[in-house]
Amino acid sequence: MAVIWPVTNSTEKQFSLNRGASRKQFPIRNFIRCLVLIVLAGLPLRQASAADGFIWLNVSVKMIVDPATGQIPTTNSDALLNESFGLMNRWLANTWRGYRVRAADLDTSGNFKRIGSLNDTTGPGKWYAIDLKYNVTNRQQFVTQAQANKTQFGWNDYAINIYINNGDYSSEGEGFIISAYNLLLDDLVKGRSGAFGYQVAGNLLHEIGHFMGLGHTFPDDGFTDTAPDPNTAPGRNETAIRNSIALTNWSMNYSSLTTDRKILVDNTANNAMSYYQLFYDDPAQSKVLTDAERYGPTRFVITERQMDWWTDYANGNNSNVTTGVTKFVDAAAASGGNGTSAAPFNTLAAGVTAVTGGADIVLLRPGTYSATTLTKPLTIRVSRPGAAVIIRP
Ligand SMILES: [Zn+2]
Fold it and tell me: pTM for this one?
């Protein structure tokens, strides 16, 4: 008989409906719950470390020490960075795709790596106060030196490399991310003045989005589930931002738009790859977001199409920083697909055959699929816009 094998101990629900629907309506889950017991009797279980239902992105953060002091210029940075990883994963959970970030290369105390040293003016310390955000030549020289001196620079071939220096905020390019101590200066939650953990997390996940192939929403990212973005509305006023995007695209205010167009506007106004900051508190409007709103599905959005693009990068150019692959399956697709977002397989069996290990994900788009026999651990997920149903053939 045909059986389904959802291997995961994830705390996140594996299957989702469109955002407004109740998970209880999802038809696959009880079916799987019945069948999993049948399979458990016949297959050896993998070690828990082999697969946890997630695809992890390794992220290696390096803080360049001030050659004048031998120290980094900020305090509390390890705690703030560590907090930001948990917060980035709260946003990633809303995408339902199983991607998570994890900190690589922590020292034995759990702190992030320091590179350079007192009086170092030729190694990492040379770059402590040099602009690596705007100056492409500097970036190229830096990455060349880092890759030629991997131990000294903490360069990790199997991680997203993030360097922090005393420059101006952050950017991504030339295969690494540069961030800055001014992002880590303070944390009001911890009684200081300046950045919150969510600001650090939002900044880093935006740059990781670039690393995963995503461009800005402005002027037009080309995705069908965002709207062209004028990026002109100042501040964090949601009404002004919505109207700015609506007027640019349809010459009317947000309130007059159809529901579908409102979704496009909100996907843009709240997008992780926009410059709007609607996930921020805004003292100017006496606005303080609850955690449920800030980390919920309506703020810091990465859309389905953006995640498709991200996933193709994760499977391809960036596979060195990941722990698994995702194969796309779409019942409505033409035959002969290769499992990419643009050319998905059209049967569950083909997706199952194409993945190799327990860390891999078969991603079903909405549709009806014939069950198949699973011969290896894997995770089956369903993308957000609708239900996927698995039936006995
Ligand atoms: Zn950017």
Answer: 0.86
